[in-house]
Design a protein that fits this description.
This is Ig-like domain-containing protein. The protein is built from 3 helices and 23 strands. By secondary structure, it is mostly beta strands. The protein is rod-shaped.
């Protein structure tokens, strides 16, 4: 409360006759005082009214001895002019200065010290951060300057396309999506000094998104099953046939390459099935895993039995058989299902003789 009162009292002393001087930190400023005749010089005084300090009386400075030549100096330029010069001003030098002749104010100067922007705090402290998809994030930039600064946030995606997304010190995103990855830059500007900026690169992590290409012509050899996996970080990929892990061997070859899908870094894994003495029927599963989870997709590769029924009984039996083989194609093969299929084939053969 006392500090506020002092500032208020000093402010009410400013008037329209005060000359306004503006200087950046480190510059020199001069306050000139003009008077009528040389005999008045002993009654002249300079005051820093903002602090209440009397700086000089006559030609004598009332300062610490170490500051008389390094920071402030009285300069008499003529018989009716006396200057007070401050070298390399700092923030404490700002305020109202007056030149007095006894109780009469001869001149007054309002000194505004311009301070270029500087960051006083920001979050996060690291230049690059990673957060899981769905989590919240707070980015902040706090800067000080005189005149005060405006904070603007610029977002840049991976293609370097940018847009202004916010004006203010803080950004809060309640639920991150994978599309929120990119560079977030806060820019501080006060219109008088060079702008300053701070950038944060945000990586949104997410579990694997797995997709197998279902449009495969199994009549084309070798058979190629393609799987697309997108995730951050990249995933470990495995292939399975009927639940059994597939490794590179004589009849199975796995090739994995990096690809770009919708501006995302992804992987393409291709399982190549070469001809073998026994067809490699079954369910093929592409599985990917990172620390956020594991996901998979599958496709079924099975034989198709083509018969040409000659009677109504054959047609009925064939309908049963096709329905059963369709069930086989939609689930893992089992001995029980194979046995049922074998029995139906026997029934069909018997019907041929009826």
């Amino acid at each position: 409360m006392i500090i506020i009162l002092i500032i208020f009292l000093s402010l009410i002393q400013f008037s329209s006759t005060d000359q306004i001087l503006r200087a950046n930190i480190g510059q020199d400023v001069t306050f000139s005082c003009f008077f009528e005749n040389e005999s008045q010089i002993d009654q002249l005084s300079f005051m820093h009214q903002t602090t209440g300090d009397i700086l000089s009386v006559g030609l004598e400075l009332f300062l610490d001895e170490s500051l008389t030549t390094n920071h402030m100096k009285l300069i008499r330029l003529s018989s009716n002019r006396l200057d007070l010069k401050i070298f390399q001003v700092n923030q404490n030098d700002s305020g109202l200065y007056t030149c007095m002749f006894n109780d009469e104010k001869l001149s007054s100067y309002l000194l505004e010290i311009f301070i270029p922007p500087r960051f006083i705090s920001f979050f996060p402290l690291e230049a690059s951060v990673s957060y899981p998809e769905g989590s919240s994030i707070n980015l902040s930039c706090h800067a000080y300057a005189f005149p005060s600064v405006n904070i603007t946030w610029i977002y840049r995606n991976k293609d370097k396309q940018l847009k202004t997304i916010h004006n203010g010190e803080d950004i809060y995103i309640s639920s991150l999506e994978s599309t929120d990855s990119g560079s977030y830059e806060c820019i501080a500007s006060n219109g008088y000094h060079a702008t300053i900026s701070r950038s944060f690169y945000v990586t949104v992590q997410y579990p694997p998104r797995v997709k197998i290409d279902k449009f495969i012509d199994f009549n084309i050899r070798p058979i190629q099953i393609k799987c697309e996996i997108c995730s951050i970080p990249l995933s470990r990929i495995e292939w399975f046939r009927n639940g059994i892990n597939i490794i590179n061997e004589q009849y199975f070859i796995i090739k994995t390459n990096a690809i770009i899908v919708d501006d995302k870094n992804c992987l393409s894994s291709i399982l190549i099935i070469h001809d073998s003495p026994h067809e490699k029927y079954g369910r093929y599963e592409c599985q990917a895993e990172n620390f956020l989870g594991h996901y998979s997709d599958h496709i079924d590769y099975h034989s198709k039995i083509i018969l040409h029924p000659k009677s109504g009984n054959e047609q009925f039996a064939l309908l049963i058989l096709l329905n059963n083989t369709n069930e086989i194609s939609n689930s893992s093969l089992s001995l029980y299902q194979l046995f049922n299929t074998y029995i139906l084939l026997i029934i069909i053969n018997l019907l041929f003789f009826l």
